Amino acid sequence: MTFILVAVEQELSPNDLPDFRLDYTGVGKINAAVKTLAIIKEFSPSLIINYGTAGSLNKTLTGLVEVSHFVQRDMDATALGFALGQTPFDAIGEIQFGGHGVSCGSGDSFVTETPKLETDLVDMEAYAMAKVCYQHHVDFKCFKYISDNADAGAHDDWAENVARGKKLFIEKMRDFSSTIQPRHIP
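The structure corresponding to this sequence follows.
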């Protein structure tokens, strides 16, 4: 079974991909981790796909991109001697699923200026979902639509562009359907 997780309904609605299980995590790492764990415990999916919007720190990236490298951009225990993004005393830091995607730094803030930790994209949920999937041996794929440039105009850009990525993701899922299992057999 495959689940698609998104943060909010503005990014994707159940009617957009009626043949797939879809649920909402809510915004932020804690909400994403709680929902991902609940989905794993209740449904035992073989694959969780995260779709959502992201701010780009890499100005060469546009459109829909696949993310394969996940870090926690707002974990800062450098005063204790830990690397930026590393949770103290936690063996799991950076997470890799696949090898051909870009990097994403997740944090509990909407980015409007360049963060200290360098990544291609920034969002608010993907690292948490990737970590829960990693811990529970569930395959994870992540697709982000670049809605803004993570700068002072990010909020206005996000509001203007949030619906654009939906179409690209729907196309991606249609192309991808031969490799994932839909909820209903057509």
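The radius of gyration is 16 Å.
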